[in-house]
Specification:
Helix content is 35%, strand content 26%. The chain is an alpha/beta fold and 161 residues long. Strand 2 (20-29) and strand 3 (35-45) form a beta hairpin. The chain is globular.
C-alpha cells in the first residue's frame, strides 16, 4: 500500500473572519524511491476555521485515486481529536447529536470526510500551529498561496505509482 503524507491547513493567516484558503500538500514516494509532491487548493474561502480545516482534509483525501496508507497532518486539534479520541464514533452512534448541546456542527463535511477517508488507512497527527514547526510552516504556506492566488482545485485524482 502506497504511503502518503498529507499536510493540511484551513486559514491562511489564522483569522477565521479574514481572507483564508484551504488546501493540502501531498507527499509520496514512488517505486523508484523518488519523493513527489502535489499541491492541491480549493481556493479562496471566507468561512469558519473549522469548516476550512475539514475541507482541507477532504481535498487531500479525495485526490487519492486508490487506497493508501495516509498520515494526515493538521494544526486543528478539533479535527485530529475527532478521530483520535473517537468523538466522531460517538457522534455517528448518536445520530450526529452531541450530548445536551444538540446537533454536531458541519455534519455535511464530517460525513464527506468519512466517505473520503473510508478506502484509506489514515492516521490523524496534530501539529502545534504557529510555533516554527516545519510541518506547520508547509501547511501555512499552502493556505496563504490559496488565499492570495485564489487557486482552484483542478486535480480529480492523482496517478500515484
Amino acid at each position: 500500500m502506497t504511503k502518503v503524507q498529507i499536510y493540511t491547513d484551513g486559514s491562511a493567516r489564522g483569522n477565521p473572519n479574514g481572507p483564508g484558503g484551504y488546501g493540502a500538500v501531498l507527499q509520496f514516494m514512488d517505486s523508484k524511491g523518488q519523493l513527489h509532491e502535489k499541491v492541491l487548493s480549493a481556493g479562496y474561502k471566507k468561512t469558519t476555521n473549522n469548516r476550512m480545516e475539514l475541507m482541507a482534509a477532504i481535498v487531500g483525501l479525495e485526490a487519492l485515486n486508490r487506497p493508501c496508507q495516509v498520515e494526515l497532518y493538521s494544526d486543528s486539534k478539533y479535527l485530529t481529536d475527532a478521530f483520535n479520541q473517537h468523538w466522531i464514533d460517538s457522534w455517528v452512534a448518536n445520530k450526529w447529536k452531541r450530548g445536551k448541546s444538540g446537533t454536531v456542527k458541519n455534519v455535511d463535511l464530517w460525513e464527506r470526510l468519512l466517505d473520503a477517508k473510508a478506502p484509506h488507512q489514515v492516521s490523524f497527527i496534530w501539529v502545534k500551529g504557529h510555533a516554527g514547526h516545519p510541518q506547520n510552516e508547509r501547511c501555512d504556506k499552502l493556505a496563504t498561496a490559496a488565499a492570495d492566488g485564489k487557486l482552484l482545485l483542478v486535480d480529480n485524482g492523482l496517478d500515484i505509482s
